[in-house]
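Issue: ligand-bound run for zinc ion - logging full I/O for the record.

Environment: standard queue, default settings, no custom constraints.

Inputs:
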Amino acid sequence: MEEKSRPVSLEFFKRPLEQLREPNWSITRVKGKQTLSCVALSKDLIGCYVHYARGRSQPCIDADTCEWCLSGVPRRWHSWFGAVSLSGQSKSIVEITLAVMPRFDEWIRQNGTLRGTRVDLARAGKRDNGRLMCMLERGAKKSNELPGAPAVAQMLRRMWDLPEHTPIIESQAPNVLPLFDRKEA
Ligand SMILES: [Zn+2]
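Outputs:
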């Protein structure tokens, strides 16, 4: 009798994947005259480099083989976090740019989490391409009074048609400082 080959590794999850497959939350980007006030649900940001190509953002997965990198399309760092509106009515995934990362990074280092923080975002000069500006302050609600955080990485993977388990590195500690050497906004 042939011995059955055993799986090399088994991935464990905190909850069944079916349960994590909640409806996609829309992505909120602050444009022009808009201002956004929300309360963060995620503990930390996750981010990656993206290219704006074919009318949408495309993830830069591997700079050595990425078709956008190779054709000279600039890449930019974007980060995302799950958030709920101040009224508690609408939830979304909020996109932020490198311009506000120092403030978020400092906040998370000082407070240990982004969850529960009130976040106000606006564009300098109220222009679509104006530098993103943010104000962070302690939110009125405690963590246990807020809805659960969405699975942001999973939703982004789904948006980009990437396999569920494409590794997206979620660093334990904020780890953004080396990026400031790069001239990317
Ligand atoms: Zn690329």
